[in-house]
Design brief:
Layout lengths: L8 H5 L11 E5 L2 E9 L2 E8 L3 H5 L8 E3 L3
Antiparallel strand pairs: 1-2, 2-3, 3-4
Organism: Acetivibrio clariflavus (strain DSM 19732 / NBRC 101661 / EBR45)
Protein name: YlzJ-like protein
C-alpha cells in the first residue's frame, strides 16, 4: 500500500503493528484450524485461518474478525 500524507503513519494505522497485547490461541472450529483472540469465557474473535484447504478460506463463518463461541 502506498500512502501519501502529512499525517504520521502511527496516527493513521494506530496500533496496527503492535500485536503483543493479544493472547493468541489455535483451535479447531468447523473442522479447520484457526487462530483466535479470547474475548470472554467461550467467546473468541477469529484472527486468521491456518489451513491448506481452499474451502476454509471461502467459508464466511471463518472470516477474520468474526466472533465465535467454542469450547476448548
Amino acid at each position: 500500500m502506498l500512502l501519501h500524507s502529512i499525517i504520521p503513519t502511527e496516527l493513521v494505522f494506530g496500533n496496527y503493528y503492535n500485536t503483543e497485547d493479544f493472547n493468541y490461541i489455535e483451535l479447531e472450529y468447523e473442522g479447520e484450524k484457526i487462530e483466535v483472540i479470547p474475548l470472554s469465557g467461550s467467546t473468541y474473535k477469529i484472527n486468521r485461518v491456518i489451513s491448506t484447504s481452499l474451502k476454509a478460506y471461502l467459508n464466511p463463518k471463518l472470516m477474520p474478525g468474526n466472533i465465535i463461541e467454542s469450547k476448548l
